[in-house]
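B., you asked whether I could sanity-check this one before it goes into the benchmark set. Here's the sequence:
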Amino acid sequence: MLKLLIYIDNGLVYSYEVTDQAKAREHAAAIIKTGYRHNDGKGDFVHYPPHRIDKVKVTGGAIETMYPDNVCGT
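And here's what the prediction gave me:
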């Protein structure tokens, strides 16, 4: 299982799990493009538009890529 973490500009971090890499990539791309929709299961529905999302992160397994990168800071 892979976990998606959605970081919102107000400090909240939403998360949920998906079953495989393809779904994780698909969900991450859709969230970045259209925003994040949260349903708490109690009838409340909140939509965060793309400009409110600081970061989308996938964790919990090795994500394969043909384009690995490096990062450094000062």
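One thing to flag: The chain has a mean pLDDT of 94. Otherwise nothing jumped out at me.
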